[in-house]
Design brief:
The protein is 46% helix and 29% strand. It is an alpha/beta fold.
Length: 84
């Protein structure tokens, strides 16, 4: 379970993790992965890494897509920080 502070953060973390699980096959098909590291005060920290060797901006595009989707789909989420 990722590091959380409040009951709301726990609820948000569960929703974020569920969405990341939906993305996981796409990440893994490119040799990468994504994992929720922490969710504190409505700010999710997600680790993305691996894969996409030689595919240019694909990782940046994936990061942007993940950030946008999480913010759109998880009410109460304030920010998404992507770590590589």
């Amino acid at each position: 379970m990722p590091e959380t502070l409040t009951d709301l953060d726990v609820e948000l973390a569960q929703k974020v993790s569920k969405l990341l699980d939906m993305f996981r096959p796409i990440f893994q098909s490119e040799g990468g992965d994504a994992q929720l590291i922490s969710l504190k005060d409505g700010i999710a920290t997600v680790s993305m890494g691996g894969g996409c060797d030689g595919c240019g901006g694909s990782l940046s595009a994936m990061e942007g897509g993940v950030r946008r989707t999480l913010l759109e789909k998880v009410d109460g989420l304030k920010e998404v920080v992507i770590l590589q």
